[in-house]
Every structure is written in C-alpha cells, then in structure tokens.
C-alpha cells in the first residue's frame, strides 16, 4: 500500500498526471458522456471488496472506469445547464484543500481556512458591490445559500414578533407570508420546503414574457399582505432560462412599506452581473435586499461545490445557523467561525479555492469574463437567428439564450423539431446543449458560462447547431 512518503508523492503525481491529461483532451473529446448511467453502473459494478487493493492500482482502475461516463462539463463548448468550468486554478487549490485534510468548521482548529474565508468573503462583497457589513457563509451551492438566507429571514422576522423559531420551531408561530415570482428557480421552492415554510404555501407573482416579476402585480400582492405579521419577498437576479432580472428597485420600494419584511435575492449566476461595469445596471437595486444567494461554481468557475450565502444582518445569519455545543471552542469578538454561517459543522475548507479564483482573476478578470460571456451569448443568438426556421425567444441581456427550432411550424411540430435537433446536436458531439420547457414549449437552452470558451468555440458550436437543424429540416 502507498503508505510511505514516496508512495504518497507518486500517488498524488499519478492523480495530477491523469487530471492534466483529461483537461488536455477535453476540447477534442466528444462533448457528451460516452456511456449511459446503466452502462456506467455495469462498468463499476462488482461485489463488495473483501480484501484491499494497492492505491495506485485503485487509482488507475478508477480513471479507466470513470472516464467513459464523464461529461465534458469543464470543456469549452459546453452550454448545458449553468455550469462553470472548474478552472485549473481552483482545481489546484482544491487538490490542496483535500490533501491538507482540514475540517474547516471552526477557526481554532483551522485558522488558515477560516481566515481565507474571511478575506475571500470581503473580496466577494466588494466585487458584487453588496453591503460590506454583510456576513458570508461558504456553502455547497445556491440551493443551500437560498436555504440559509431564508432561514435568517425566518429567524429575524419572527424574533421581531417575540418568537424564537430556533428554540420553539414553527408550531404556533405567527404566520409568514411568502411572495415569489412565478418563474423562480425550483431550488428556492426546495429551500422553502426544508424550512417548514412550504413550497406551495406561497403567493406567486405574475411575470412578464421573460420571467421577471410585474411590478404592479407585486405592489398589489404587497397591499394584500399589508396586515400580515411578517412577509418574505423572494426575487431573482438572472432567470435560469432568459437571464432576466426582477425589477429590484420597484420591488424593494413596495416591499419596504411593510414594517416586518425581508427581501431575499436568488442570484445564483446573475448576481455576477454586478461585477461587470457594462452589465451591472441589470442588477440595480439588488443591493437593497436583506440576503443574497449566489454560486462559486457557476460564474466564478470554482470547482464543485461552492456557493455563498450572504446576509446583511450578520447576527440574524448567525442566530439561524449556530450550532451550540459545550465542546466547541468559544468565538472572541472579531473572530469568525465558518460553521456559524452554514448548516454544517464538519465541512470542506471551500475558502481556499474561492480565494484562489478571486485572486487569480482579479476584479478586472471577473468583469472581462462576464462581459465576454454576454457578448458570446449575443453572438450565438445572432448567428442562429439568421438561419431560416430558428428563433431566439428571449432578449439576450446576459448569458442565457432560448432557442426554438421549427419556429414557423405548428407548436407541436416545433416541439418535435426542437427535440430532434437537440438530439442531433448531442449525437454529433462537438458541443453540448440541452432542452428545457419554456412557456409550455420545448426549447433549447444555451448557457454561456464556461471560463475556457473562446470566440472560435462559439463559431464552431453555432455551425454545428445550424447543421444539425438543417439535417432535421431536410428530413421533415
Ligand atoms: C443554479 C441555480 C440555483 C441552484 O444552485 P446550485 O448551485 O445548483 O445549488 C438556484 N437558482 C438559480 C437561478 C440557479 O441558476
């Protein structure tokens, strides 16, 4: 077994060689998994190992078995979902994070992990231009960041009404009204579900054609909720399909008329528009909210997983998340225990990769990347739109593009043509894009967010998409 120092060095070098080879191969690789789940399962399937196996052998075997079932998510022509490219800088910091083996739950046990988070958090608030006094919890992603922000909201609104939800739970508590846009991300509903606020027990606010809340409809809902004891308003900065932003200034202005209100923003990727001077106006008024959720593993390109839960009222944040135990060291004034801002106690030192990415890109690098992606999205939309039968269904304000094939066909035929074209694009494999449902119709959703994408990738991908569509069109 690789127990000795040479063994460890060789094992780590072996892993690094495989990692580098994978990344080098990635742009040339077919941009989809070469196995289905069932095939991958068959590749891994084996009885429970009774005897151990030498580490270097296990590693070779892992690489051989995993590789066919990997997806080129970190590749330069990946447009599926909203996935950053696990930038090599972040990956290298993340290797070390694992190798250092730190439990970053508290600052006494791992001073560097906590300090790194503190500084990365400060940088983040500066780049996103959010209140500098806000507290930041480094979590697994925007789902949990939404959960944390809404937990702080629940805690603070009820505390103001004389109710300690952390101690006494929700049974018998004053009710909380939740207002949320009709096209909010599913994970926000999941967060409401985890918090006992209920995913169906909400008022859904009508939206415009891009999924942004209608300010008048919102103001009406606020008036209806006027006498309610507590109101949580959930907005969105960057709709998953269109990239649209809720009208934050109008919403916050209407919301603040209520005396016990909390505004939470889901900005998993869209919040990063604030780091880009040419796009920041889209997210104007976002800073007026009380809490924000965003991701590191989307636009910041950190490896999975990394999200940020940001709360203006640090005390409410901490109250909602603190795990009190006699054996945990106390925190002095000016010190920061990472676990006080997240649901977990034992946790990965996510600050190292986040710090490394922020430092590597810098303010200029982040701004240039966001701008580049938005420009590529517009370019892609314009190339596709020029082809007969292809329509772009959204105003491309950010990095998201909704594409419809067979735009001049009957709705059902257009659904079929779109699904067939997506399948043809995936089969061809020089880029990857997936389908989605938008306003009751099948569409292809493109998310331009890979840190390694360059203009040539955009041109090549547009060409492949158009070619796939022509094939489907000719066969119809
Ligand atoms: C991706 C996304 C989420 C969920 O984030 P995870 O990182 O997957 O947990 C929430 N909201 C929006 C708008 C998103 O794009």
How would you describe the overall organization of this protein?
Belongs to the group II decarboxylase family. This is Pyridoxal-dependent decarboxylase. It holds the Pfam family Pyridoxal_deC. The chain is of the alpha/beta class. It has a domain of 263 residues: Type I PLP-dependent aspartate aminotransferase-like (Major domain) (Aspartate Aminotransferase, domain 2). The strands form 2 sheets. It has a 7-stranded mixed beta sheet, sandwiched between helices. Strands 8-9-11-10 form a 4-stranded antiparallel beta sheet. Helix 6 crosses helix 11. The radius of gyration is 24 Å and the shape is globular. The mean pLDDT is 95. Pyridoxal-5'-phosphate binds next to helix 6.
Mean pLDDT: 95
Give the helix tally. 14
- Report the span from N to C terminus: 60 Å
Strand order of the largest sheet: 1-7-6-5-4-2-3
Bound small-molecule species: pyridoxal-5'-phosphate
- The computed structural class is alpha/beta
Instruction: Report the CATH architecture of the domain at 95-357.
Output: 3-Layer(aba) Sandwich
Q: Helical amount among residues, as a percent range? A: 40-55%
Q: What string gives the helices and strands in order?
A: HHHHHEHHEHEHEHEEEHHEEHEEH
Proportion of β residues?
5-15%
Principal-axes geometry comes out as globular
Unreliable stretches (pLDDT < 50, length at least 5) are: none
Largest sheet: 7 strands, mixed
What's the number of extended β-strand segments?
11
CATH class of the domain at 95-357: Alpha Beta
Could you name the CATH homologous superfamily of the domain at 95-357? Type I PLP-dependent aspartate aminotransferase-like (Major domain)
CATH topology heading of the domain at 95-357: Aspartate Aminotransferase, domain 2
Rg over C-alpha atoms, rounded to the nearest angstrom: 24 Å
């Amino acid at each position: 077994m690789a127990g000795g120092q040479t063994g460890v060095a060789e094992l780590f070098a072996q892993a690094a060689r495989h990692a580098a080879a994978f990344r080098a191969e990635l742009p040339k690789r077919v941009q989809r998994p070469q196995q289905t789940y069932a095939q991958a399962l068959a590749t891994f399937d084996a009885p429970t190992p009774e005897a151990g196996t030498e580490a270097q052998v296990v590693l070779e075997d892992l690489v051989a078995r995993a590789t066919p079932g990997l997806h080129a998510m970190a590749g330069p022509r990946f447009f599926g979902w909203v996935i950053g490219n696990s930038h090599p800088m972040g990956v290298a910091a993340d290797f070390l994070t694992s190798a250092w083996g730190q439990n970053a739950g508290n600052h006494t046990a791992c001073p560097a992990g906590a300090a790194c988070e503190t500084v990365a958090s400060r940088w983040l608030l500066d780049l996103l231009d959010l209140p500098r006094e806000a507290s930041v919890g480094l979590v697994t992603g925007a789902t949990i960041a939404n959960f944390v922000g809404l937990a702080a909201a629940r805690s603070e609104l009820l505390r103001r009404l004389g109710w300690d939800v952390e101690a006494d739970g929700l049974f018998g508590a004053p009710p909380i009204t939740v207002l949320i846009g009709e096209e909010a991300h599913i994970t926000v509903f999941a967060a409401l579900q985890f918090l006992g606020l209920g995913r169906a027990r909400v008022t859904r606010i009508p939206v415009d054609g891009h999924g942004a809340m209608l300010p008048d409809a919102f103001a009406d809902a606020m008036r209806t909720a006027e006498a309610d004891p507590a109101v949580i308003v959930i907005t969105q900065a960057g709709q998953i399909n269109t990239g649209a932003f809720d009208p934050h200034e109008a919403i916050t202005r209407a919301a603040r008329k209520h005396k016990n209100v909390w505004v939470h923003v889901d900005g998993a990727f869209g919040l990063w528009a604030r780091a880009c001077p040419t796009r920041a106006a889209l997210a104007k008024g976002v800073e007026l909210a009380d809490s924000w959720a965003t991701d590191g593993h989307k636009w910041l390109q950190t490896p999975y997983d990394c999200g940020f839960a940001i709360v203006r009222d640090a005390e409410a944040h901490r109250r909602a998340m603190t795990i009190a135990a006699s054996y945990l060291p106390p925190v002095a004034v000016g010190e920061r225990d990472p676990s006080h801002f997240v649901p977990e106690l034992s946790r990965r030192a996510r600050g190292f990769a986040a710090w490394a990415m922020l430092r590597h890109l810098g303010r200029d690098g982040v701004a240039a990347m966001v701008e580049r992606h938005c420009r590529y999205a517009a370019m892609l939309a314009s190339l596709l739109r020029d082809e007969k039968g292809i329509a772009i269904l959204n105003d491309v304000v950010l990095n998201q593009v909704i594409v419809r094939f067979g735009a001049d066909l009957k709705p059902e035929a257009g659904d079929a043509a779109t699904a067939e074209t997506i399948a043809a694009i995936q089969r061809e494999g020089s880029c990857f894009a997936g389908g989605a449902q938008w306003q009751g119709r099948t569409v292809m959703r493109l998310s331009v967010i890979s840190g390694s994408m360059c203009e040539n990738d955009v041109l090549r991908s547009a060409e492949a998409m158009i070619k796939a569509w022509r094939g489907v069109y000719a066969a119809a």
